[in-house]
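Thread: 6-O-phosphono-alpha-D-glucopyranose complex, take 2
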Amino acid sequence: MSFDISVSGAAAEAVERVVPQLVSDLVASRITDGDPTLWGPDAEEESAKRLGWVQAVVISEPLIDDILALRDKLHAEGINHIVLCGMGGSSLAPEVITRTAGVELTILDSTDPGQILSALNDRLETTAVVVSSKSGSTLETASQRKAYEKAFHDAGIDPLERIVIVTDPDSPLDKDARAAGYRVFNADPNVGGRYSALTAFGLVPSGLAGVDIRALLEEASSISIQLAVDSPSNPALILGAAIAGTTPLKNKVGIVADGTYIVGFGDWVEQLIAESTGKLGTGLLPVVLDTTSPELSENLADVQIVRLVGSARATEHVRDGEIEISGTLGAQMLVWEYAVAVAGRLLAINPFDQPDVESAKVATRALLDSRPAPLAPAFAADGIEVRGSADVVAGQDTIAGVIDALVAQIGPDGYLAIQAYVDSHTLHQLSDLRNLLAAKSGRPVTFGWGPRFLHSTGQFHKGGPAIGAFLQITATAPQDLEIPDSPFSFGYLIQAQAAGDATVLEQHGRPVLTLTLTDATQNLATLFSAVD
Ligand SMILES: O=P(O)(O)OC[C@H]1O[C@H](O)[C@H](O)[C@@H](O)[C@@H]1O
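Output below.
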């Protein structure tokens, strides 16, 4: 069996109560048939052009030979290092697919100048770059493309030979890239970014990097008939009911890899859940945990634990109150896509739009256009500059003090989001703050690298229930990097992205604390001791 699920506690109660209704409403077969009326009249127009993922396996099959032929051609030319430039749905699937397969793929989903420089300086002579953007208008991706074009030119390499484009037909990128003479793979425009794992967006970079993408599609195919059937044993109906049907709603979903062979599934499913459901003041907050995370033992009434286990047998030993899942990667991707669509119906929202992502982009764009002088910090301590909401910074003069003040703002049903707009490779230790702050606050804590998370959980933070408190970590970059043909640099862009999102969060009445590391390596110790 390619997929198994076991439920207990409130999730089991939800399955018992909700699934019969889903079956009698023919939800599974209607999703499979592309019925756009399942999410109400307001969602109908969008849903009508967003259900193509149901047929992704069939649609993607013809792409495989072209991808493998290009891989062979690149190999024959000695090109064996693949970089992927893309944000959100254009990079999260290839990340989990290649990590699980143990295949190298350098993913550039950052605007941090140091991180971009490291990628540009890494094996350029033997590198091919996939530039992926469904809309073809994402600023980060366009900037990364320009940086690689310049780097190839400067090295005397023709970018047309080394850059491959994945985008929707007729997008601005599609038109521009075709006119310039780039190799372009088009994806199905009737699939939204976060549902695009099994389309060209997941397959082109993963296939070029060396993954057996045919096997991935076969894994998904093996479960597709089960998902289309209106039956109480349909795993997507069970999962959808278990995560979105509990009463009262457990609106945080703690996802922990505990025995699964899949590496990094939480980071992919995080976007699918958060961006699909976090809107109109409701939604499910995904919280990616590890097996030592405090949330697993705290029995928080509003957190539903989902444990990704190793084998079907492991799901027979489900822990009290948990959901346990096992399965192949391709099958899990398709099951979760169906389940989140089901969750959208249960939560009475449109699972295919992302109305609040745009607000942060607009605020960032305003800063990029006007380029105001940086806001003076409220204070600085031990080389860390402190800015933030008045409730958090007023009366404080230590890093420990402001962090405590932010934690004190988290309500009984709230959560803390750590958002680190830094080089995620050199400052990887920052993610260890998550478990520490979860222990300190006794509440769920999410961790995201900026600007990557803006395209993943960013929608929930602004469109979901207004219960988050936000810790931004930024850094003064030791070196900046110009974006070719742009009035601002990567260093300016990442700061504007943090400041733009902070403005929008504060407009939603949420507390924000921004800590700027002026000497990142030295400041880490201060930060960790302030949290302890
Ligand atoms: O693939 P792109 O069009 O560049 O979009 C990348 C990301 O952009 C936005 O943030 C959307 O909210 C995401 O759903 C999407 O995955």
